[in-house]
Amino acid sequence: MQRQGWLRNRRLQEAIRQYNRGRARKVWPHLLLKLMPANRFNGFKDYGIGIGLRIPHYTHIFEKKPVVDWFEIISENYMVDGGRPLATLDRILERYRVVQHGVSLYFGSAEPLNREHLRRLKALVKRTGTGTPWLTDHLCWGSVDGTYSHDLLPMPYTFEAAKITARKVREARDYLEVPIGVENVSSYAEFHMSEMTEWEFLNEVVERADCGILLDVNNIYVSSRNHNFDPYEYLNSVPAERVAQIHIAGHSKFQKYILDTHDHPVIDPVWKMFEHTIRRIGPTATLLEWDDRIPSFDDVHAEALKAEKHIHAPVAVAL
């Protein structure tokens, strides 16, 4: 599979050269749709539309065996020595592809990575069949002196923070031996000491770490409303070639702020941002998050599949 991805990347580069020479312009959108999705940051895998694996849906999944492109699992839920969580995961792996998504590596915390956490995480990577093609966690901090907040806290956007964060991402990737994508988080506070915008900080980290991006479109929308910036400026600044995966989700609107609650359908402005993203970067593995007030499996899957019409939108030539 990786060989196929490598060949596809070579063909994409040749298509770009042909386009720049004035050739093959009529078939350019078709070429991009076929060649763009996979890259080295998602293990050269062509995954489609997935949903999060959640306990309320276990019975439906095992009894009905629905057709799903892939499931995203929260790594920490399965970093145990045995019992029902791993037994359930093994049953899922018999039929479905999974991608691991973490919530507590805390790349942005000043302290070193937790070695025991990494050991358990690597054991889970090895357990998931041929291994999760890529692994994601958040661009945030959340621990101090070994005490964990269990929250995804925003970072000061400074060059020093970017340097420390990128070093920890590289360390985790080298130890886990799997591509890593960092996710932009929703935020509700800003630091006066910041030296750049959030998207500039994201770019600084991923370039220094040479890692991928889990681009959460809903988080960009939420933060743009909370901090009054143009979400499309953010989207247009993200390096397209580094996007390994996309998140979409619903949120809750309050009087003075928007909260990333993952308990509603995706709203139209977020779908429009998602389509804009696909036009820039090409079809990319997309995951719908729904983590609270979870409806039936069929309802969640139907909401996720709405992404299909946007994924097949024409792709822009300028990347």
Give the structure's gist in a few sentences.
The chain has 319 residues and is of the alpha/beta class. Helices cover 42% and strands 16% of the residues. The longest helix is centred in the first third of the chain and has 19 residues, at 2-20.
Multimeric organization: single chain
Strand content: 15-25%
Mean pLDDT: 87
Per CATH, the class of the largest domain reads: Alpha Beta
- Following the backbone from N to C, one meets helices and strands in this order, namely HHEHEHEHEEEHEHEHHEEEHEHH
CATH superfamily of the largest domain: Divalent-metal-dependent TIM barrel enzymes
Helicity level, as a percent range? 40-55%
Biggest sheet, strands in spatial order? 1-2-3-4-7-8-9-12
CATH topology of the largest domain: TIM Barrel
For the biggest sheet, the summary is:
8 strands, parallel, barrel
Contiguous low-pLDDT stretches (5 residues minimum) are 1-9, 24-36
The overall strand count is 12
Question: Helices and strands: which structural class?
Answer: alpha/beta
Our count of domains comes out at 2
CATH architecture of the largest domain: Alpha-Beta Barrel
Shape: globular
Task: Kindly provide the radius of gyration, computed on alpha-carbon positions and rounded to a whole number of angstroms.
Answer: 19 Å
Termini separation comes to 25 Å
